[in-house]
Amino acid sequence: MGFDRDVLLKAGIEQADAVACTSPSDTDNIVTARIARNIYHVPIVVARLFDPRREEIYRRLGLVTISTTTWGAERIFELLTHAELDMVHVFGHGEVSLVAVEAHPRLVGRMVNQVTVPGEISVVSITREGTAGIPISGSEFREGDVVYFAVHASAMNRFESLLGLGTGG
């Protein structure tokens, strides 16, 4: 029982900077999270949930939750609908994705400002020869670059079209 006082004290809850509540029980995770936050004043507390219907309730209690069920379903959807893209991370409830793309002929020679759509598609980073950097609008894509884009979900089809994916190009 992760919320047992003796277990928490033995685990060092009084000195903890963070707690991850990951038992197989949503109820146990939330009880442990509330104890960590409200009694021991742990600054960072995250609880895993299996039932996504509970997420809003726990958010109202001020608890940070991760619904592995929701996350898994969203990830499967992304992989099925945008199979040619490498979704590195999803933010919020899937509104924005971090997408890694190896620069291919359609991208090579173009500049960051030519593939940026304000509020929809932004270049976040370029990894070149193993070193990552934050590009400026005039940065040029080179062969072998790995380009990281932040893409709004509503612009995913536009993004694929911009890269020539799914169109035989």
Overall description:
The protein is of the alpha/beta class. The chain folds into 2 domains: 5-70, Rossmann fold (3-Layer(aba) Sandwich), CATH 3.40.50; 84-163, 2-Layer Sandwich (Alpha-Beta Plaits), CATH 3.30.70.1450. Helices cover 30% and strands 27% of the residues. The protein contains 6 helices and 8 strands. It has helices at residues 5-10, 26-38, 55-60, 68-81, 112-115, 156-163, and strands spanning 18-21, 44-49, 64-67, 86-91, 96-102, 121-128, 131-133, 146-152. The strands form 2 sheets. The protein has a 5-stranded antiparallel β-sheet with strand order 4-5-8-6-7, with helices on one face. The protein is elongated. 20% of the residues are buried. The model has no long low-confidence stretch (mean pLDDT 84).
Itemize the secondary structure elements and their pairings.
Elements: H1 5-10, E1 18-21, H2 26-38, E2 44-49, H3 55-60, E3 64-67, H4 68-81, E4 86-91, E5 96-102, H5 112-115, E6 121-128, E7 131-133, E8 146-152, H6 156-163
Parallel strand pairs: 1-2, 2-3
Antiparallel strand pairs: 4-5, 5-8, 6-7, 6-8
From the N-terminal CA to the C-terminal CA, the straight-line distance is: 55 Å
The helix/strand order is HEHEHEHEEHEEEH
- The CATH H-level superfamily of the largest domain is Regulator of K+ conductance, C-terminal domain
Question: How many distinct helices?
Answer: 6
**Structural domain count:** 2
